[in-house]
Design goal:
This protein has 1 helix and 8 strands; from the N terminus they run αββββββββ. The chain has about 110 residues and is α+β, with helices and mostly antiparallel strands. The longest helix has 24 residues.
Length: about 110
């Protein structure tokens, strides 16, 4: 019985160490949506990690800035009213992507960074 307990503790410690190494390799990925006064939007973002995918949904008419940990980030952003949006994605590795919309509602922007 004592031998089994030691094995379980060793496996748990090894798994935690492996998870820590995977998290250490994850990048910091930041989404920033800056709407013009009164412009509203919806956003659906997917963060890819070593252990799977996480989906996040946002909507509003105010400045949005969110930071995620992962390998890549892709977002689908729809402008839902008149006006314009500036969308920035940045990575802790120095990569960045900037998009903008203007005009009526329905403008769709697909952005991704890894």
């Amino acid at each position: 019985m004592k031998r089994s307990r030691s094995l379980v503790v060793w496996l748990s410690t090894s798994c935690l160490a492996a998870m820590g190494a995977a998290n250490a390799m994850a990048k910091e990925l930041t989404l920033r949506i800056e709407p013009e006064q009164g412009t509203s939007y919806t956003a659906r973002c997917t963060v890819e990690t070593g252990s799977g995918r996480q989906t996040h949904e946002f909507s509003g008419a105010e400045l949005l800035e969110r930071t995620f940990q992962g390998d890549s980030l892709s977002c689908r952003i729809v402008q839902t009213s008149e006006g314009g949006l500036v969308i920035d994605l940045t990575s802790s590795t120095g990569s960045s992507s900037r998009s903008s919309t203007s005009g009526g509602s329905g403008a769709l922007t697909m952005v991704s960074i890894s």
